[in-house]
């Protein structure tokens, strides 16, 4: 639960990105949604529609429960990995996952990101920044901002 309560460094930084971003009527993907906390916050900030995706069954079920408990009306919770994103597009993608999955799936995220879209990434350490940045640049994503907390980092890229 530490990743899903907002107390873990990566979740905290993602919350900071969401809080300072205008999400009104923006389509949002919360990839690796865990408990759904970031998708729920994004909806509270006016985002719609939203997809919250996680491959872990417990996370999927927990997100369904949290979406219902928070009376979120615009979030679709999906059990799966990046393969479920085929044919979808988003204005904002939030991906708080580990480095290797981010690197593996960056092409999928880039292909799902609308023009002028934003990609928020976290779940990795400061020493991983060159790898993550190089992979993003390979997909024509432009670095915008870095947040750091206790050697964990979160990066913002623009399409």
Layout of secondary structure:
Elements: H1 9-19, E1 28-31, H2 37-44, E2 50-54, H3 57-69, E3 75-79, E4 90-96, H4 99-112, E5 113-125, H5 129-138, E6 142-149, E7 152-158
Parallel strand pairs: 1-2, 1-4, 2-3, 4-5
Antiparallel strand pairs: 5-7, 6-7
What gross morphology would you assign?
globular
Mean pLDDT: 95
Distance between the termini: 32 Å
The CATH topology assignment is Rossmann fold
CATH superfamily: Vaccinia Virus protein VP39
Strand content: 25-35%
Q: Could you tell me the number of beta strands?
A: 7
Structural class: alpha/beta
> What about the largest sheet?
7 strands, mixed
Low-confidence stretches: none
Enumerate the strands of the largest sheet in spatial order, edge to edge or round the barrel.
3-2-1-4-5-7-6
CATH architecture designation: 3-Layer(aba) Sandwich
Radius of gyration: 14 Å
At the first level of CATH, what is the class?
Alpha Beta
What's the multimeric state? single chain
Summarize the structure.
The chain has 159 residues and is α/β, with parallel strands linked by helices. It is built from 5 helices and 7 strands.
Please supply descriptive tags for the structure shown above:
single chain, 159 residues, alpha/beta, Rossmann fold
Structural summary, described in words:
The chain is of the alpha/beta class. The chain has a single domain, classed as Vaccinia Virus protein VP39 (Rossmann fold). The protein is 35% helix and 31% strand. It is built from five helices and seven strands. The protein has helices at 9-19, 37-44, 57-69, 99-112, 129-138, and strands spanning 28-31, 50-54, 75-79, 90-96, 113-125, 142-149, 152-158. The protein has a seven-stranded mixed β-sheet, with helices on both faces. Helix 4 (99-112) runs parallel beside helix 5 (129-138). The longest helix has 14 residues, at 99-112. The mean pLDDT is 95.
């Amino acid at each position: 639960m530490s990743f899903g309560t907002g107390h873990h460094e990566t979740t905290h930084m993602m919350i900071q990105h969401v809080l300072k971003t205008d999400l009104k009527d923006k389509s949002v993907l919360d990839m690796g949604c865990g408990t759904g906390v970031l998708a729920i916050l994004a909806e509270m900030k006016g985002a719609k529609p939203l997809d919250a995706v996680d491959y872990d069954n417990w996370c999927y079920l927990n997100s369904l429960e949290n979406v219902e408990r928070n009376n979120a009306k615009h979030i679709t919770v999906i059990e799966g990995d990046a393969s479920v994103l085929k044919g979808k597009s988003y204005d904002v993608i939030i991906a708080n996952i580990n480095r290797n999955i981010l690197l593996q799936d960056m092409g999928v995220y880039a292909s799902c990101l609308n023009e002028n879209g934003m990609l928020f990434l976290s779940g990795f350490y400061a020493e991983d920044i060159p790898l993550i940045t190089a992979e993003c640049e390979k997909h024509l994503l432009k670095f915008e901002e870095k947040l750091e907390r206790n050697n964990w980092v979160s990066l913002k890229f623009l399409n």
